[in-house]
Amino acid sequence: MKRTLLYAYEEKALPNWLQACDNDAEVLKSLAELGHNAANGQLLMIQIGREVQIEQINKLCQLNFDILALSNTPTDSEGLKLFQLGIKGYLNTYSTIDRIKQAIDTIKSGNVWLGQSLMQSMFAAMQPAKQANDNWKNLLTVRELATAELVLESLSNKQIAKQLNITERTVKAHLHNIFQKLEVSDRLALALKIKNW
């Protein structure tokens, strides 16, 4: 199993990162330690900002690192730029251990991690297909359709459950069925597929 690589120019960020990695981490003193070899999907948690700029992230993405970028002042515009380059996740540098762990687990399972605000910005930036095709709706039950439409509004499972007057467990079951029927793996892939159906 590949080790998670960590690079932060502020050492005070590292304790939470290390705890979230479950002893599966190597702290880098500089980015030069990465060399120029392809990473083959190795996870790199990297603090962006003062010492690490977007151009460096672009080069690291081209080397095939799965990058979890962490910023002291994350913004939707910065996040959108970074995701366009190919990062896999974007968080506040000082996020909680649990949130960092969720992001790591999500990325290691082959998905992307982004916050609700950034997801809303991505959905808003997507251009729908020139001729909207709603055939995907025919594949879903009434409740699955209602759930999918609320996902497109960037509602959380808890908010969807409240709005549809069902349990969060039922929302998860609907999402599982939706993902299976539309052949996607997560909310972002679902939104992309629906918007470009």
TrEMBL record:
Ranges where the HTH luxR-type domain occurs: 133-197
Keyword DNA-binding carried by entry: yes
Alphabetical list of InterPro entries matching this protein: Sig_transdc_resp-reg_C-effctor, Tscrpt_reg_LuxR_C, WalR-like, WH-like_DNA-bd_sf
Pfam family, one: GerE
Membrane-spanning parts: none
CDD domains: LuxR_C_like (cd06170)
PANTHER family linked: NITRATE_NITRITE RESPONSE REGULATOR PROTEIN NARP, TWO-COMPONENT RESPONSE REGULATOR
Record protein name field: Response regulator transcription factor
Organism whose genome encodes this protein: Thiomicrorhabdus heinhorstiae
